[in-house]
Write a structure and sequence with these properties.
By secondary structure, the protein is an alpha+beta fold. Helix content is 27%, strand content 28%.
């Protein structure tokens, strides 16, 4: 799979326009700005994140929800025009759309048969204008040489690498950072908190959330029930079922047969991918590329750690908490995600500690459909924080994974978040990790800034 990029580029000084458009549009839908560094992974239903890259006269906007970008473009171009939308589709096609407050000015698509940026709702325009380097030049204040170079890229549609052509186009305009993924910027925002990139672009982030303080205040970790993840449970709430007509059931049966065939093919493809990655580790074959293929570029060693070590203590300033390493434990690299708090290896077992919003407690306490709750022990830590120790046995094929069939789960309720301590072991009880893992949980403490 190739790369997918899409960015909204605004010339001039659109900072006020961007903020006001986002606050008005998202505010009407119940979202409010959230200050401070991000501490939780993006919740697609209750959060919207925006990254802004600024350098010189350009501001580039990256939005967390691709399916809502058209509406965001509509809101932004009412506040600040012109607006340039640049995109790459699967490294096979690229294009741009230049718009003012009323209509398309010019538009280009290197392969209209493969994809279309605004194929279904063309933003109030009745037709798409032809690609014109001269019009891009006049609208954005470029040179005649730039216009000629852009027209040459138009003529090279379908030839060579689409991603490379898009990069050349963006470099001509001075927006080279437009060809980067949202995922890569999320990585960079954690690895470089000051936001200053080596290429001179300044990275800023905006977060909007739907307030859930009422639900958070009612959370009591000790009283929430563990629910099973099934087709009729959403967020821990049982849903109603309906009777389906016979013709619908028959069609579902036919579709199920097709899905079984596709699943067999996918299993074969999955085996090939795993084989490729195994070979990659041992003989340095090229990486398989996906949407976030460039996310690793910000940290070529893959050793991101969002915490610091002070002797035997691991301290997370972002999350305002600390733990003490038990004997035999060593700190480990972690995923570059806002919700990742700590990672460590304990007796060859990887232990992860992640943060979740308080009101998501029902989601945290759900167990897989084919599993069994073997242990559930609510207790209170010496510092007064509530915690809950659970052991979930995975049944069926999921339990045969090398990591083990038993999930050891400790959930700690802090003042503003749930902290989830998670690992998998092949056997339980009396696994060597039990005692040191409990000591690690008992050592969990909030920093003074978060109490």
């Amino acid at each position: 799979m190739g790369a997918f990029y899409n960015s909204i580029c605004l010339a001039g000084d659109p900072q006020t326009a961007v903020h006001s458009a986002l606050e008005r549009w998202l505010g009407a839908r119940g979202f409010v700005p959230e200050a401070g560094p991000p501490r939780f992974d993006l919740d697609g239903n209750h959060e919207r994140h925006v990254f802004l890259l600024r350098r010189g006269r350009w501001t580039i906007v990256f939005f967390s929800h691709f399916d809502e970008e058209k509406r965001l473009i509509h809101e932004l171009r009412q506040q600040h025009a012109p607006l340039l939308y640049v995109w790459v589709y699967d490294s096979e096609a690229w294009g741009y759309d230049l718009l003012d407050a009323e209509r398309f000015l010019t538009s280009f698509n290197s392969d209209p048969d493969l994809t279309s940026s605004f194929g279904d709702v063309p933003l109030d325009s009745t037709e798409r204008p032809a690609a014109s380097g001269a019009l891009v030049q006049r609208t954005l204040g470029l040179t005649a040489d730039d216009a000629n170079a852009i027209d040459q890229l138009h003529g090279a549609a379908g030839q060579g690498d689409a991603e490379s052509h898009c990069r050349t186009f963006c470099q001509r305009l001075g927006i080279d950072a437009a060809v980067i993924s949202y995922e890569a910027l999320e990585h960079e925002s954690l690895a470089r908190p000051d936001g200053q990139r080596d290429d001179g672009w300044q990275l800023h982030s905006l977060r909007f959330v739907r307030p859930m303080e009422g639900a958070a205040r009612r959370v009591d970790l000790h009283t929430v029930k563990v629910t099973k993840w099934s087709a009729h449970v959403v967020g821990g709430v049982e849903t109603r079922t309906i009777e389906l007509p016979r013709e619908v059931i028959d069609e579902l049966a036919r579709q199920r047969k097709r899905i079984r065939t596709m699943a067999a093919l996918m299993r074969s493809a999955s085996w090939l991918v795993r084989l490729w990655r195994t070979l990659q580790q041992h003989v340095s074959l090229p990486r398989l590329r996906g949407r976030d293929a460039r996310a690793d570029a910000a940290d070529p060693k893959g050793g991101y750690r969002g915490y610091r070590r002070d002797g035997r203590r691991l301290i997370s300033e972002r999350h305002g908490c600390a733990i003490t390493l038990p004997n035999g434990a060593t700190p480990a690299a972690q995923d570059a995600r806002p919700g990742a708090v700590f990672a460590l290896d304990l007796d060859d077992v990887r232990v992860l500690i992640n943060a979740q919003r308080l009101w998501k407690v029902a989601e945290v306490l759900r167990r897989p459909n084919r599993s069994k709750l073997r242990h559930d022990d609510p207790r209170t830590l010496p510092n007064g924080l509530k915690t809950r120790h659970m052991v979930i046995e995975l049944l069926g094929p999921s339990g045969d994974a090398p990591e083990g069939r038993f999930v050891l789960l400790h959930v700690i309720q802090g003042p503003g978040a749930l902290y989830v301590v998670l690992c998998r072991v092949p056997r339980w009880p009396r696994h060597p990790i039990d005692v040191p893992l409990r000591a690690l949980v008992d050592s969990f403490a909030m920093l003074d800034s978060m109490r």
